[in-house]
Each structure stands twice: as structure tokens, then as C-alpha cells.
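Objective 1.3, modelling of assemblies. Example input:
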Amino acid sequence: MIKTDAVIIGAGPTGLFTAHQLKLIGLDCEVVDNLDKIGGQCIELYPDKPIYDIPAIPECTGEELTNSLIDQLKPFNIKFHLNERVEEVKNNNDRWEVKTNKGTSFNTPNIIIAGGVGSFEPRKFSLKDCEKFEDKSIFYAIKDKTIFKNKTVSIFGGGDSALDWAIELSKNSKVNLIHRRDEFRGAKSTVDKMHKWAKEGSISLYTQYQLKDVKGGPESLESIDIEHDNKEIKHLKTDFVLGFFGLIMQLGPIANWGLNLDKKTINVDTEKFETNQKGIYAVGDICTYPGKLKLILSGFHEGALAARACFKLARPNEKYRFEFTTTSTNLLKRLGKKE
Amino acid sequence: MTKIVYIENGGKSHSIDVQNGLTVMEGAIQNNVPGIDADCGGSMACATCHVYVKEEWFNKLPKKEDGEEDMLDMAFEPNKFSRLSCQLTVTDELDGLTVQLPSKQA
Ligand SMILES: Cc1cc2nc3c(=O)[nH]c(=O)nc-3n(C[C@H](O)[C@H](O)[C@H](O)COP(=O)(O)OP(=O)(O)OC[C@H]3O[C@@H](n4cnc5c(N)ncnc54)[C@H](O)[C@@H]3O)c2cc1C
Ligand code: FES
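Predicted structure (C-alpha cells):
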């Protein structure tokens, strides 16, 4: 059990700047994110697109903004728990117990939810029967490619992940590549390579097809049916199915923590950005209040205020003093600018 | 105001007067039509505003911009009449546009 002053859920721009604000005022924090990287929507959805409305930064891409925020955290030693989703939040003697799906647990007086529109999860097949085979014969990410050796693998999707894996796995497996239209959206060189291999017969390509049915025993898949736009059905024997449809944001476990929700957002006050539960705050895209703007700059403001609110519960016997980074010896020490 | 008809997956129909200049997605969200999530707020990054356009309307709509078809690859059960409603701006020409909502967005 990790004891800390505050747990931040979400390593998007809001979570990152909130961590900075907590450390600056002398509190510890730990950050959890379900993605395998830091940066939230900026890094997952638009790393290369320029943003023009961050105050004092005329132009920067999603990735550059993320890197600058990470840079700004350099003076502080912050522990990130990536690839972990916070599942459970429980009250225990005026403190909170926070548990992730990987079994990490925290004990803290403060939880700051900076969860955006929810955690990023892989998009799955719409077919209900696919659930039975998930993590056995149907996968949305590859952890161990050796299991596919000398087997038949049917890959669905039209982006780089689908193409890269089709090319990679076709070296040692029989690969079917299935996509809902003729055009692929991957890098041109990859698309060309895939078409070349398909022509030579090392990849069997099916376009304008989508998954229609999955068949097999209780433990493993035997075959699938795919349906053409013109309703024609093809039956393919296959050992494995891989789906690469990108990621989607799902509110997921946050909905079960007894918080006052408004659709997919959490109601907060605008003094502390506290939810209806004492010691749980929500900042950034996930919070709502009259006038809320879903902009990065709003998240920064909200995080700064929530961090001050955390001080009271983390240091009940001390008084928070307002200080500037330019002139406060205390803050300059924390920033590593003064001995 | 332009009339847009949203038909839920279960068949329930909502006929809404939407202000010109808003998107078909915004028309649904502002009027609490269930079935459109619009997680990314209209920035063509989520595909959770996916709709099926009634066949007779499909060819009357402005063409898809770069990127919309790519995003539709990720939508839930897309078909050849699929569009992202955040990319459809309401104008007089769309009066009576009818869109069907998928059974889920994700
Ligand atoms: C294409 C596009 C363009 C945009 N352009 C601009 C712009 O120009 N200017 C602007 O100001 N804003 C822009 N935005 C909006 C901006 O990206 C968001 O406002 C911002 O990312 C919100 O930050 P956040 O930290 O609150 O949430 P997010 O960036 O969404 O990060 C939330 C993180 O929390 C994680 N998470 C959620 N739940 C859990 C859980 N239970 N356990 C673990 N982790 C969890 C998620 O995995 C995610 O990484 C744009 C958005 C998009 C999609
Ligand atoms: S609202 Fe996200 S793609 Fe349309």
C-alpha cells in the first residue's frame, strides 16, 4: 500500500500540471494512467496537430505540449503508474483507498480525477459472441507473438497496427487481412508492401468485408464468417482473430464511485473543484460546472485550485501560504533553483 | 431553423429544429437526443457521433473531408451510408435530413 498526499487519476495535460502544482506547494503525489504513455488526448489523438491557444505558447503540437509539461516536472520526482486503470475507490477512516487493475493500491486523503472523457481502451468487435473468445483466441493487442507461429490469424482493421502486424505475422503464420473498404489509412510504404505481399500470396486480402460470426468450442476459435458489402458471406478457418480499431475513451469504473455525474462528466464546485465526496476532486475535461470550457487552459486553472484544496486534508496542522515562484525561497528550493 | 430527423435505433423518431451553422451532432446533443456521444466534441477524433444517413439524402450531403472515412473505420458497425454527424453542418438545403442512430457508439 503506497501512502501519499494525493493520487492523480489521468496523465493528460491537466493531470500533469496538477502534479506540478501539488509538488510546488510541498505535497507528494502519484499519477496513474491506463495508457502506456503520458499525455492523454494530446498524445493519443493528435500528437502532430498544432494547438494555438495555450497562453504564451503561440503554436505547439500535442506532443510538444506534452513534452514541455513533462520537462516542467523535472525538478520533482513523480511516480507514474502507466498501463494501470484505477478500478476502485473506497473510504477508510477519512482517507481513501485506491486500487488499480494491476493490484497497486494507495492510501491517501486526496484523489484528483483528471480523467478526460475516461480511460483509453481498445475498440472491440460489435459481435457479442466475440467476448467469449477474448484473450483466448481474439485479441486487441499483442503481448506474445510466438503464440501465432504456424497458425492462421485473421486481422481486422485498416490502419498502421493492422498492416504492420499483417506483414510481421505473415512471416510465420497464415494471415488473412480483412477491412471494411478498399483504401487503407496506414503509411504509404506499409500499404504498398502489404499489397505486394498480397499479390505474391503471403497475405490473403479481403476488402469490403466485416466480421459476421465467430464459431468454435468453449476454449478456442475454429472459424469466422465475414460478410461483403453486397451481403455475400465467406467462411474462413482461423485459429486467432486480431482487431485493430484504435482506442476509445470509456468512463468505465469512474461511474461506480458514488460521484454526482452529469452524463459523462462530474459535477464540482468552482472553489476547490471538489465533487460530492470530500477529498475527491475532478479537474480538466471530466469536470463540469456552469460555464465550463473543455480547453487545456481551463484544466490548468482547475488543477491549481484543487491542489491548494488538497493541502488542507494532507497537512491539517499547517497553514497554506500563498507564494510566487519568482520570489519565494521555499518554492525556489523545491524547484531546485536554490540550495 | 432547419428540420433534422433523428431516428433512434429502437425506432423512436425526434424531429428537431436546428439552427443553421450548428452541426447535426450539436443539434442532437443540445436537444438531448440519446444515441450520440460525441466524446471528442466535434474534432473528428472519436467516431462516437456516427450516424447512418437515409439513402435518399446520402448523395445530397457535402462530400467527406480527408480523415472522415479513416475515422469511420473505427466507428461501431459502419456501413456505406455512414457519416460522422459532427462533420455535417446544418444549412437550408438539409431541411428534412433524416439520420438513423446506431445501436451503440462504442
Ligand atoms: C483533435 C483534438 C484537438 C484539440 N485541440 C485543442 C486545442 O487546440 N486547444 C485546447 O485547449 N484543447 C484542445 N483539445 C481538447 C484537449 O485535448 C482536452 O481538453 C485535454 O486533453 C483535456 O485534458 P485532461 O488532462 O483533462 O484529459 P485527457 O487528455 O483526456 O487525459 C485523461 C487521461 O486519464 C486517463 N484515465 C481516465 N480514467 C482513468 C482511470 N480510471 N484509470 C487510469 N487512467 C484513467 C486516460 O487514459 C487519459 O490518458 C483538442 C482535443 C482533440 C481530440
Ligand atoms: S464528435 Fe468525435 S468524431 Fe464527431
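Helices of chain B lie at 24-30, 55-58, 68-72.
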